[in-house]
Amino acid sequence: MNLETNYLGLTLRNPVVASAGPLSQTVAGIRELGDGGVGAVVVYSLFEEQLRREAERLTRLETQFEDMFGEATSFFPEVPNEGAHPAHRYLRLIEDAARVSEVPVIASLNGVSVGSWIDTARQLQDAGAAAIELNIYFVPGDLRTTSAQVEQRHVEIVSAVKQSVSVPVAVKLSPYFSSPGHMCVELDRAGADGLVLFNRFLQPDIDIDRLEMVSGVTLSSPNEARLPRTWIAILRGHVRASLAATTGVETPEDVIKYILAGADVVMTTSALVRHGAGYALDLVVGLEDWLTSRGLTLEQARGMLAIPEAASADAFERAGYVDALQKAKSTYGSLV
Amino acid sequence: MTRAIIDGNEAAADVAYRLSELCSIYPITPSSTMAELADEWAAHGRRNIFGTVPTVIEMQSEGGAAGAMHGALQAGALSTTFTASQGLLLMIPNMFRIAGELTSSVFHVAARSLATQGLSIFGDHQDVMAVRQTGVCLLSSSSVQEAHDMAAISHRATLDARVPFVHFFDGFRTSHELNTLTKLTDEELRAFVPESLVLEHRSRALSPAHPFIRGTAQNPDTYFQSRETANPYYAAVPGIVERAMREFEGLTGRRYGLVEYHGHEQADRVVVIMGSGVETVRATVDHLVAAGERVGVVFVRLYRPLPVEALLAAIPATTSRVAVLDRTKESGAAGEPLYLDVSSALGEAVMSGRRDTLPLVIGGRYGLSSKEFTPAMAKAVFDELAKESPKARFTVGIHDDVTHLSLDYDPGFDLADPETLSAVFYGLGSDGTVGANKNTIKILGSRDGTYAQGYFVYDSKKSGSRTVSHLRFGPNPIRAPYLVGQAGFIGCHHWSILERVDVLEFARPGATLLLNSPYGDQTWSRLPEPVQRRIIELGLSVYAIDAGAVARAAGLGSRTNTILQTCFFAISGVLPREEAIEAIKHAITKTYARKSAEVVRKNHLAVDQAVQNLVQVTPGEASSHGLLPPVPEGAPEFVRTVTAEMLAGRGDSLPVSALPADGSYPSGTTKYEKRNISDIVAVWDPEACIQCGNCAFVCPHAVIRAKTYPTSAAEGTPDGFLSAPLNAVGLPDTSYTLQVYAEDCTGCGLCVEACPVRPIGQPHRRAINLEPKLDREPEKRAVEYFESIPYNARERVDFGTVRGTQFLEPLFEFSGACAGCGETPYLKLLTQLFGDRLMVANATGCSSIYGGNLPTTPWSKNAKGRGPAWSNSLFEDNAEFGLGMRLAADVHRDLARARLSELREAIADDELVDGLLENEQRASSDLVAQHERVERLLDRLTQLDGPAVADLLSVADHLVRRSVWIVGGDGWAYDIGAGGVDHVLASGRNVNILVLDTEVYSNTGGQASKSTPLGAVAKFTSGGKLTNKKDLALQATAYGSVYVARVAMGADPQQTLKAFREAESFDGPSLIIAYSHCIAHGYDLRDGLDQQYKAVNSGHWPLMRYNPVIRERGGNPFLLDSPRPRLTLEEYHAHELRFKALKAANPQEAERLLALGQAQVDRRWQEYEELATKGAERFAMDARERS
């Protein structure tokens, strides 16, 4: 069966994509993902700003106690540097991976400010990235920041990067906008070639023994797919950009649901971390089997359950909400 | 020809490294840098001139380094080492061997004082003079250039002569002076050290291919003759060195002689000297000759074997008077060594008719422990020679009012080159002033036609330390190995300095003064009146900048160095302003570009803003305040007259009579300093506080103390004295005060981190917080009042809880350790628990420096005048030293008990005698009672007479059980002192060993020890440590008779407390290994406690105790006190530069070592768990019979 998929203008052999995650930290890992059956690999995110901040912190620590007293004018030796700066290592990874990978290699850049995105994006393009995924991970903790400013910043970053590179640019964003749909449309207008829905905020937990916030990562679960799926269903047909679904993909069923909602590609890290890179093939075969059993082509299935272009998404959602509440009422008793 | 600006250490190491195949090393100030550089070069793959990368190996001691060197030499490798002081002494046995076997090798020595009445890290020739007898050749350098050149000459000559060489130069004065030099290229070195010599050296090596034995035992029949076989080799050395010097001259144009003369051709007065003082005397001679005096200087380069002919030839025939200056002291000798050598050479020459007349030869000492040796002093020596009857023996540079040996000199005499610009900068250790000045020297000194010199003076503290940088620049080579006397530029980089120290001491009339002032247009009026007066008198131009504000605006925090450096360039006129700014920016880029673009950007920004914010200050109205006194008026006399002078930077002026003859100094003197080094200090919130005592427990500086007292006493207290009702049942009408000694607080923040309270509605605050405090008067008054409240009675304090310990008086206070030090809280606890009967043997290292470096000591005493008796012997012998204290205590305890029994009738108080003899002295109430009984006994004895009474009086205090603690760092316990520690643990004697484990040699700058964990970057293991940390605790448990504990106060203070008390009460050897966070780990020490928590909870530092008493009772003595690891090793590593540095530089290797480290942690945890669950029979028995 032909599962060929167009994503960001790239032709992928199937719609299952490895999202930015721990498996793509080495050339071997990226190759393994390709061999495992995915249609493309998004390489783990380059946290360039963090790298810069970290380099600054380390330099400060190294020099902080220099020349403080006569017996010890320094405390750290110059460490023999086997590799280059972490950002350079990332570029080398993209370069090497692009050369050996059978599937397109998409670089992922994580940050919050316009800063040096442009230079870095260009370097990623030059290193051979088939596309660039901008992972705009921005928590507006400053309570003076308005929603309009947040949206404006997203748009600015995308426009700036788009103007500086010729490879396609996808944007991975969070669902936390007053009007996520409108935000997506704006990003689409700003030139985004793809929208990746959604970023998971790795929210901190609280340790009640030590009375402090602790950060931590949990793999996503299928339930979390409902939110991106809803928005993909709404956006389908309303934006020029490709739609990529991410979060909550565990089984072929989850892939199928996303495709039905209108996703061009379905991304997963959690399932591949849990089951290994080869699990991608299980997802693809599962999708294929289901399509065959239903007598559908991928193109026919894609967006089959998207909200029709003419329908009012608002009404559609409202109806779904009311339905859901009714159902909950019958299951758990009155909620509201 | 390559021009460079480096210090003497680098100058010597650069050559030594390139001419060696093996460097066996060990850190010791001031030579450590040579070893560090060699190690770093090898790690980076730098090759020697033979095309190989030398092997650099850190040993466990200098003795070990010399042993490894000896072995490597016997096996044919070109070997060298770098050392100083006690380190060189530890090499002596091998030096005899290496010399006896005619083995080519070089020891590079940054010559340093020896530990006598006190240790000193500074420079003189005592160490090299102590190896004269070993048979090594001694070659001396007197400048940075010479340290480079003589290194080459010594390596060449030793191969030629087959006799080992010590190449030495003055510690600090030369080893740490930055100066312009011309570097030898690899080609020059290759041409200078012919390969044939290397091949010959190799051919003499031991080899199974042509076996022989060397190192035999010899007998009366041939040993003597065999000793004489070496004579021709020694006789040949002067000729060989001379030839090498001529060849060297041919290659480089730089001319040296074995002994050289400089001065008037027909001099009547001559000074003989070696080392950096040569340069000072030479300059003085030039001045005096120009003034018409017939004087000269003879400088000795080759000192052993003494080139007698060259020496005689160098002294002009016209000379009638010779002064020989020795930078050493040999008590009891007829004279110092160089003096005796010169005298005997001249005497023999006259006796044998080779010289007609015997000049009058006098001998003097100068410059011990880097004491300044200036042209004024050199002139004083020539003046003395001109007297009718000069002193036969003298000293110069001090005021000796006891034996009256010192020469007077005119401190105003100066030989400043008018073309040389001199500048002096006052900074704090943490502000980067010294680093910026090093940079300035490099900027200026690397320009064609400009020469530069820099020398840096540090005070004795590790936190808030004051630095004084002495810089010279000019068109002529700078040969002035002494501090700047008349500076054209003074920079005072911290306002607090000018409030306490005369920063204009070195100012020349018309000089420029740059102030870092936070006071804007108030700057003038804020200056102390004497400073204002001097500014006007000297006609100084004054500029000011609020560098702190500029630094903060540029995102540089408290690093003001770049800003002030820019200001220096902007107003000193050493370079055109634009050019200077360009050069500074270039230097910044060069230093940081590889590391962090952000750091470069921020510093560039700071440079631009510096100039814009610089303002000129014009004199205004006189202010009414003077300089702050160094100590309060009420301080004891010794503190006021001696300590205060040292604190004010006037210690050089103290006469001999002011100082104790045997190195004994009064306890408890840090409390008079009131250093006020932090702008932010801890502030107690009585309402939120739950009175748990955690903050007081962890405070490294003992600035947080608690007392309870009747509430009625809290009335009429001064403003600022805070109080709360005591939070304890059964004690109504009692108040509690947690007093912060604000003037002594370093603002480290550990207390804040230790506080478990979040006041309601203020999640980011605690019950103790850091707050800015500019006016400290209320705190001063509060502390005064607090001190008037008696400490809680010891018998009423619960020693067993952290909460209880806050009420115990700390007798270790306000040390100069780093702010937030991880070691000092343990020492403070030690004194709180056992201070009034504590003897401390302290290994050399950080703890001996913050514990015993003059002017003051944190080891204190209580209201009764009792407190810890502290001493430092050496680095390597501390366990044995402490054991000796125990043995003496036991001997005198037994004597006291015996005499007491004998005198029972005379004393006529059986209850008292029985009480004294039978009290087990375990509980605090027992000890309080025993103290009281001893006092009663002493009272009674004063009424009695007789020899037994006098005997008992002298040892009666031993009836109170003495607590002997042997304290030191991991460099001592794991490495250099390991043999002693092991032996003392095996001795069965009642001593307590406390290892303050920072996992590196902290005091000398973070070199790896055997405690350094796998994967950590440290000096000497810059690619990440490849071996596991030694499990000292587990090793000690093998004896079965040793109480062992591994503790980490930040993770479990209660376990720490328990371990200290159990160790002390255990009647046998105890070992406590205490996790001590350290600046050498590379993070803000405020997070120290959190890192301790992570170390424990990741399994890196499992808390355990091993108690033989439990074994005796049939239980499992191995107690695992920490929970099963719940963090990964990576989570512990993530915060520390020592691990992150490797991750940044070599991620694959970091990952590999992390995985191995994790596996090791897992494995050890399993092993510990297993041990903790076994039966008593699984463990070794304690066979000692104990009371």
From TrEMBL, chain A:
Residues 3-288 form the Dihydroorotate dehydrogenase catalytic domain. GO terms for cellular component: cytoplasm. Pathway: Pyrimidine metabolism; UMP biosynthesis via de novo pathway. Keywords: Flavoprotein, FMN, Oxidoreductase, Pyrimidine biosynthesis. GO terms for biological process: 'de novo' pyrimidine nucleobase biosynthetic process; 'de novo' UMP biosynthetic process. Pfam families: DHO_dh (PF01180). Its cofactor is FMN. The keyword Oxidoreductase applies. One of its GO terms (molecular function) is dihydroorotate dehydrogenase activity. This is Dihydroorotate dehydrogenase (Fumarate). It comes from Tessaracoccus oleiagri.
UniProtKB/TrEMBL annotation, chain B:
Thiamine diphosphate binds at residues 62, 823, 846, 969-972, 998-1003. PROSITE patterns: 4FE4S_FER_1, 4FE4S_FER_2. SMART domains: EKR. GO terms for molecular function: 4 iron, 4 sulfur cluster binding; iron ion binding; magnesium ion binding; oxidoreductase activity, acting on the aldehyde or oxo group of donors; thiamine pyrophosphate binding. Gene3D superfamilies: 3.30.70.20, 3.40.50.920, 3.40.50.970, Pyruvate-ferredoxin oxidoreductase, PFOR, domain III, Pyruvate-flavodoxin oxidoreductase, EKR domain. GO terms for biological process: electron transport chain; response to oxidative stress. This is Pyruvate-ferredoxin/flavodoxin oxidoreductase. It comes from Tessaracoccus oleiagri.
